[in-house]
Amino acid sequence: MKPFIHPIKKENPIIWVKFLLILLVIFYAWTIASTLNIVVDYLQCKSCHFGLYLFLKFFSLFYIPCAFYKLSKPKKLWGWIYIYAEQLFSLVIHLGMAYSYFTGNGSISGFLIPVMIRGFFVYCLCIDPLAEYFGAYVGYRQIARTIIIPFAVIYILIMYLF
Description:
0% strand, mainly alpha
């Protein structure tokens, strides 16, 4: 009897890469749709202020297509770095906003689902065969972690202090 799901090996990463990219496209399509909804609400609002949250949402309309454009290039490393950085940054931000989310009577599922999705993507992007397919070796992954985590901590501090 053959197993239905094959483990990720160096011989067959392309199947898993395609699966991960399809999931990322679905996830980012949902993100862009919700961002466009926020843009429409902002443009129709007369007393709304342009803050850091809106800036990051508007910036994602440029950032996400740019990341997928970089993934379509023969050298996919920058696309991997863009997507990995965004996923890791968002994961840290979601975890950092746990207190403010639950003080506003948020549901546990509404908090855990985005954290689990982001955590899944961060984990999958670091699996050796998938990361090597994108051209990200251990040194690049360590650099990405070293750069992104301090920026996320600084962002969380800015959000709470201002």
